[in-house]
Structures are given as structure tokens and as C-alpha cells.
Write a structure and sequence with these properties.
The protein has 430 residues and is of the alpha+beta class. Helices cover 30% and strands 26% of the residues. The chain has two domains: 92 residues, Beta Barrel (OB fold (Dihydrolipoamide Acetyltransferase, E2P)); 300 residues, 2-Layer Sandwich (BirA Bifunctional Protein, domain 2), CATH 3.30.930.10. The strands form three sheets. It has an eight-stranded mixed sheet with strand order 6-10-11-16-15-14-13-12. A five-stranded mixed barrel has the order 1-2-3-5-4. Strands 7-9-8 form a three-stranded antiparallel sheet, with no helix packed on it. It catalyses: tRNA(Asn) + L-asparagine + ATP = L-asparaginyl-tRNA(Asn) + AMP + diphosphate + H(+).
Length: 430
Amino acid sequence: MKITISEVGQHIGEEVTIGVWLNNKRSSGKIAFLQLRDGTGFIQGVVVKSEVDEEVFKTAKSLTQETSLYVTGTVTEDERSPFGYELQVKNVEVIHEATDYPITPKEHGTEFLMDHRHLWLRSRRQHAVMKIRNEIIRSTYEFFNQNGFTKIDPPILTGSAPEGTTELFHTKYFEEDAYLSQSGQLYMEAAAMAFGKVFSFGPTFRAEKSKTRRHLIEFWMIEPEMAFYQHEDSLKVQEEYVAYVVQSVLANCKLDLQRLGRDTSKLEKIKAPFPRITYDDAIKLLHEKGFDDIQWGEDFGAPHETAIAESFDMPVFITNYPTAIKPFYMQPHPERPEVVLCADLIAPEGYGEIIGGSERIHDYDLLVKRLKDFHLSEDAYKWYLELRKYGSVPHSGFGLGLERTVAWISGVEHVRETIPFPRLLNRIYP
């Protein structure tokens, strides 16, 4: 019977066959321990010389790292294993022998590992991070589907920039100029006027020449947009969504979190509602912490966000940023036009902003004025303005950066480990 490693718990005491790769091995004169993986998980295969044919034991001892094979054996429970099971191997059939596999159990430099990312993905650590990423995606769809959202896919090629043109990748679209999308938000606003509550999930691109551990050139965003939702309504959705995702990872990725050495007690605290602090109070807090350089009206950098987050053991909303440093489409505060109805959600433990959101301007004349203030073309945004001409309503939305969220939940330091093939300032290989 052919099964996968993830299914072995259903076949205790039975003889099964699994297609695997050899992750590692150790052996003595009488027994060989094979560390096996098949993509669904890892298991130890035990080959006892006295219990198998001589040729089988000889083959098992000669296996090289990343050789592909079929192993046949009996599934047994093993309390010493984090996985809980072991395979008592009776037969080994080599499919393809790997020779001189470049990533050995010794230490390798980061650049070497990144050059071999196509192989590094096979390691236990990278496997765990990708499984957590997958669970975040799965639970994202589950959350929004359960809460009445419709998934809408915005275009990747756009004719204008939702947040200005300084960080866009330009290309020619036949005879016209086009850009790789830095956000699907404007299109999601159009979709919200048709479907009420929508979300997108797709790649976005920022031509930002940054080398920090928080930045990627290509990354994935979850962008919900909600008609008839004001800023406060959106904040509730955000905290409920993030808490839901964290609890789903805790429930379904225990082995992966354990493999990464993640302190799950910090994640277990993540439940709505989240604390909130205004931009004004954040400035005061930073001054108290010795950040005298930051003045009202300036945006926060990574050190500022980390310092603010240190005052909380939960994600924290920073609300009501100055109008001048936020995109043109954000709704001004009704009592303080110098700030907007927006919030950034800052993850704890120094992982920085994972969500940016706001109530959107729904008044036609105000949006026209804001386009002029930002020196943006009314013709390019004609379709976006028309959303305010034909049945405009208050609406809000946000964008969650998947890779930063994966980094925070899994506890890895750099976002380059949170995406299968990272695109960095000086890296587009492999």
C-alpha cells in the first residue's frame, strides 16, 4: 500500500510503501537509521541487518544524501520522535542516486544557501517555514469565506500607481506605459462597490532599493475592501483576522513551530482586541524612550516601530497618521483634517508593520482635490473617480504583507526565508 508520511498515523502496524528522499543517515555495523522526507513530512526509517536481506542492508548503508527511493516497512509508534512514528524498513528500492549534493549538514553561508535556494527548500527548517506560510494562506481563505467576502483578482499590470510612481517597475504595454502593481487596492475598491466585501491575494512589486531584513522586491499581499465599513469597523476585521490566522497556525503547525524553536507562549496571547495608540501618543512615547530625532509629521522607521512594539506584548495599532505622509485616497479625520483615518498594525518582537489600512475618501470633490495635491492625473484616475460619482458609500480596507506575517509567526529573522524564491535588491537567481 502506497501512502505518504503524513498518513502513517492511520496505518500503525501495517506494511506500507512510501516514495521518499534521503535527508540524512547514520549507521553502525548492525543497524541503519535513515532520515526520510517526502514533502508531507519527515520520518525515521530503521533498517536492522538481522531482519532484512543482506543486499537491502548493503543498499541502505550506501545511500547518499537526497537519493530518491521507495521504502517498504511497518509503521510503529515511537514516543521519542517528535513526529510520534517510525518505519521499520524491510526493503529499499533506489529510484535515482544523488551524488555530491551541495548542501551538506555542515554550516553554509547565507549567500551560498540563497544561490542554492532551489535545493535549500528541502531542508527541515525551510520546510517548516513554508508549511506555516501555507497554513496562513489556507486560514486566510477560510476566514474571509466564512465572513462573506468574495475573492476578486486585480490586474498585475496597471496604467497608474496607487501610491505614487517612485517605487514602481516600469514597462511598455505595446505603445503605452505600464507598471507592475504595487497594490491591488484601487481595483478592490471598484470590486467592493459591486460585491460589498471582497479580498484579493496576489503578488505585488516595489522597486525600493532597500536591503533590510523586512524588505522584498516581490511579495504577496492580502487586500480586503469593504463597502459601508468605516475605519472602526475595519480595525475589528483586522484584529479578528490576524488572531484567527495565528490560532490556526498554533493548532495545525505544532511540529513546524517546534522545529523552528518558536516560543509559542507569545503567540498564544494573540487574541482580539489589540491595543491602540495614536500617532501623537506614539511620538510622545518615542521621545520618552530617547528618540529625540523623530518629530511630528515624520514617518516611522524600523527602529521606531520596534521601540513602540516593545511597550506591548500584542500587535498594536498606530492610528491617525499625518495626512501629508499618507497616500491620497485616505479619509481625513472629521475633527482633525491634518490627520487621516488610518492605522498601521505593528507586530510584536521587532517584526514591524504587517498591515496598513484606512477608511477611503468617498466624496468626489475631496478626492479630486487630493489628486491635485499629489500632482496626479485626473485622466489616469477617471475610472477611480467614477466610483464616487455613481452610488458612492463610506468604505474601508487594508493590506497585509504575507511574508512579514510569516516571519513574525514562525519567528525567523529575515523575510528572505518566508517566500519560496525571494527577489532581493541584488538577487533574481534562481
